[in-house]
Design goal:
The structure is a homodimer of 368-residue chains.
Chain A: H1 6-11, H2 32-41, H3 44-48, H4 51-64, E1 70-71, H5 78-82, E2 87-90, E3 94-97, H6 104-109, H7 115-118, H8 120-133, E4 144-149, H9 151-160, H10 168-176, H11 178-202, E5 206-211, H12 219-240, E6 248-252, H13 259-263, E7 269-271, H14 278-285, E8 290-295, H15 304-318, E9 324-328, H16 338-362
Parallel strand pairs in A: 1-4, 4-5, 5-6, 6-7, 7-8, 8-9
Antiparallel strand pairs in A: 2-3
């Protein structure tokens, strides 16, 4: 069914011939063909909500680079948008909700969306992408990753109404009225679990939960308001889609201090940002989970020889052990030259293959 | 000489009757009297560069709250401003340099400032503040903290030219031309050491190095480009002002993963942000250094009973051991109600006193 299952094998910490690689925001503004499609669509929401366009841009990076996974082109704000908060994207200022959730009355009005029909454009896109990834015999080139924002991260956008520096509104609510934040999180937990289940039913091979704003929380608050809802989402998906065995990656940006706690969330793999030393991270949790990351996206602005050096350093840091998925530590920067991405992907594949070769020659048991 | 040396004793990890407390940006926009003085000065730079105004606002929070230290009212950008980069502050967009350092030619033109006269307004302010803190017999109410940005943090502002999201310019330079970044850091290291020495000579009792942007670096890059220059600054200050025995606090925001490495910088204390669990941090480095922190500034937006609960949780997390200086995990938010600060300071003092009492009654050896 899959021509290349390296990514899925690595997620299970099974041995692979090389380290698989994909890139957060791999279908995005650094690609001229993406900008061309977006211009045709008119604006970001029109691009994202149209399954034809979403399919087209999802496949664009795979046409350029031998990536080991495709990721659904979408946005983490689809769920609060489906709750009727009035999502818009403005050039420069980013996403904005016309109706942020600021008080008890706002929360009382909130309803979890019916995934179908409100988010059918996402499940339709997944089905179309799976078709487009298949050859005539139905063999898929690479696995497809679905995703959602974490309940906490969605709550940040819902309460703040857009991008913010200090998370003043939601943190004020969190400390003054934790019960209100909990009500939003409970709603988001159900909505995210339903959304991920719908993505599984539509055909994704793996799931990723983006906890973009978990890292802004204080130590104790993180456990309660970000990690606990993520664990509940995973438990719900596991309970209702147990026979699907869909691996789940959790990525808390800035969560390097909390890897042990995150490892207990039920996830199969953790994404780590570039502040994390992969050697230390593997020693801390590598016996239980796979790790995904963690090149600084700014490395891709440097000349090719530097990119290759930094790629090798990350691969060496993890070592020849199973369970590493190469990625950036956050989304690729829009100003990245596409041919730099090609250098990175090639170096990941060739160097990780050589690393395994060298290790198995010197000590056949080391890679086990 | 000092009516209250609790803060200095805690920095040396000596026993204290209670946990001392001060607040990052304690002289700032949350205080109406500060805004009044700033309005009189006309704009931020006029306020900061005038020793009379700087003295006035430095003392304002101590008039309101029984804080255990004063901190020089100034800005971390005084040093690059003295290099002639053309600093301005605009409402909303924050600091901006008219002449950012973007290439080799810009770097060749850079010169370390002569602290005197370029930064005499800072040393004059320190002398005036020490006067203002003294009573008729020359006894000072509380110690005075001087400070500087870290070489890396200053370099970020110098190269980016102002606030930024992705640190694109300096990270591009860092990966493509590390030699150029190193030249800026070498210059900044000398300038910061000279600046801190001048502050010691003018009379500060302790120093703090704000590594505001160390946490944006990748693991390996942090060691080389942020931590190593900080260690060199400390070594220079120690070598040239050895007999002054001025304790130094280093605060890398987002540096919780790197406490062990930071502890080897030569600092006497580390500041930690709110993502750090104080129990774990003390276990990791508390035998060597004092710890400063780490209440989430957003806690101060909550009602008083919540503030007191969160203060007690932080004090309990550190425990009754010597070497804790209470503070926020970052600067106080401008929208903080001043009477909430009073609640926090009172709870720190009363609860930490009770904590020591309780512990010494139950086990006289526990607090040793």
């Amino acid at each position: 069914m899959l021509a290349n299952d390296t990514f899925l094998r690595a997620l299970k910490r099974a041995p692979t011939d090389y380290t698989p690689v994909w890139i957060m925001r791999q279908a995005g503004r650094y690609l001229p063909e993406y900008n061309e499609t977006r211009a045709r669509a008119g604006h970001f929401l029109a691009l994202m909500k149209n399954p034809d366009y979403a399919t087209e841009v999802t496949l664009q990076p795979l046409a350029r680079f031998p990536l080991d996974a495709a990721i659904l082109f979408s946005d983490i704000l689809t769920v609060p948008d489906a709750m009727g908060l009035g999502l818009t994207f403005n050039a420069g200022s980013g996403p904005r909700f016309a109706h942020p959730v600021r008080d008890e009355a706002d929360i009382a009005r909130l309803k979890a969306p019916m995934i179908d029909p409100a988010l059918r454009y996402v499940t339709d896109a997944i089905r179309q992408i799976r078709q487009a990834l298949s050859d005539a015999k139905g063999v898929q080139r690479a696995p497809l990753i679905g995703f959602s924002g974490s309940p906490w991260t969605l709550a940040c956008y819902m309460v703040e109404g857009g991008r913010c520096d200090d998370f003043r509104w939601i943190k004020s609510m969190l400390y003054a009225r934790p019960d209100l934040v909990q009500r939003i999180l409970d709603l988001n937990t159900r909505a995210v679990a339903d959304y991920l289940n719908a993505q599984i039913d539509a055909g994704v091979h793996a799931l990723m939960i983006f906890d973009t704003w978990g890292g802004v929380l204080a130590h104790r608050a993180f456990q309660r308001f970000s990690l606990a809802p993520i664990a509940r989402v995973i438990a719900r998906v596991r309970a209702s889609r147990a026979d699907a065995h869909i691996p789940i990656i959790v990525f808390t940006k800035g969560g390097g201090l909390w890897l042990e706690a995150l490892a207990a969330s039920g996830a199969d793999a953790l994404g780590v940002d570039w502040t994390v030393d992969l050697t230390a991270a593997r020693q801390r949790i590598g016996k239980q989970l796979a790790l995904q990351g963690n090149l600084d996206p700014a490395v891709l602005l440097a000349p090719p020889d530097i990119i290759r050096t930094e790629v090798r350093a990350a691969l060496d840091a993890y070592g020849p052990h199973p369970g590493h998925i190469f990625n950036l530590g956050h989304g690729i920067l829009p100003c990245t030259p596409p041919h730099h991405v090609a250098e990175m992907v090639e170096e990941v594949h060739t160097y990780s293959r050589a690393l395994r070769q060298r290790t198995s020659e010197s000590d056949p048991f080391y890679s086990a």
